[in-house]
Automatic annotation (TrEMBL):
Main localization (coarse): membrane
InterPro entries: Cell_div_FtsQ/DivIB_C (IPR005548), FtsQ (IPR026579), FtsQ_C_sf (IPR045335), POTRA (IPR034746), POTRA_FtsQ_type (IPR013685)
Protein location: Cell inner membrane; Membrane
UniProt gene name: ftsQ
Family of this protein: Belongs to the FtsQ/DivIB family. FtsQ subfamily.
Name under which the protein is recorded: Cell division protein FtsQ
Length: 268
């Protein structure tokens, strides 16, 4: 075998090929480790149809500090994406490399729709997120929603339905709360309180079954909307504080006692 020139030439070619490949791998490894490929630039852009009102390069730098492992060639983009999406106001980010030492971040911000429970918010997708409420637009009056864990999408849905039903009266939601027993209570911006009772359509999320004394959400509100103008006429300007809609054929009202007492005093 070793006296065969053709076989020896073949072995020599293999050894040379392996040596060349090893040299190329070593050279490639040396090149990609050069400092010029370290990530030194990061550009933020809003995704199409979005604007960046709250997210800044400083915010992103603070979140990713100590989490960028590697350079232009070796940085773990999925891990970096996961870390950046933990930043306040960042709903989604797409990351691409920019030759030779940069990253382009296309960011979608959360768009606040309402305040949620004590210190969180709900975006326009019905998703909960945590950010500094002091950064909310002071020119916008955000409603306050309260409810059990996992009920945020139901509340957003019901709030939309209620806003539509109340629109003929030009009444708007200030606070909307869903109890642990899945009963609704609403305070409007004019101070009026609506007690709507248990939600007959919440069985899919209600741990208690949603059937005990459940009332029709839409039908009861429609009845209130139809009767409200007439009711205001009949009450002769007395301020109504609360409307209880937990009835199948009507509703109960409570007057603002402070106003009633004040009127009685004036008459004396």
């Amino acid at each position: 075998m070793f006296n065969n020139p053709r076989f020896l030439n073949f072995i020599a070619n293999i050894i040379m090929l392996v040596a060349i490949l090893a040299l190329l791998v070593g050279a490639g490894s040396w090149v990609i480790k050069q400092p010029r490929f370290n990530i030194t630039k990061m550009v933020l852009e809003p995704k199409e149809g979005n604007t960046l009102l709250h997210v800044s390069p400083a915010n992103i730098q603070a979140v990713i500090a100590g989490h960028i492992d590697g350079n232009f060639f070796t940085v773990d983009l999925p891990a970096l994406k996961e870390q950046i999406e933990k930043a306040p106001w960042v709903r989604n980010v797409d990351i691409s490399r920019v030759w030779p030492d940069g990253l382009l971040l296309r960011i979608e911000e959360h768009e606040a729709y309402a305040k949620w429970n004590e210190n969180q918010m709900i975006n326009t997708w019905g998703e909960i997120f945590t950010a500094n409420r002091a950064e909310l637009d002071s020119n916008v009056e955000y409603p306050q929603y309260n409810g059990p864990d996992g009920s945020e999408k139901l509340i957003v849905q019901r709030a939309g339905e209620l806003a539509t039903l109340l629109s003929p009266l030009n009444l708007h939601i200030d606070t909307m709360s869903l109890s642990d027993r899945y009963a609704w209570q609403v305070k409007l911006k004019n101070g009026l309180e609506l007690i709507l009772g248990r939600d007959g359509g919440a069985e899919v999320v209600d741990p208690l079954g949603g059937s005990q004394e459940a009332v029709s959400f839409a039908e009861n509100v429609k009845r209130f909307v139809q009767a409200w103008p007439v009711l205001l006429e009949r009450t002769k300007g007395r301020r109504i504080k609360k409307v209880d809609l937990r009835y199948t054929k009507g509703f109960a009202i409570s007057f603002d006692q402070a106003v009633v007492n004040e009127e009685s005093t004036e008459k004396k």
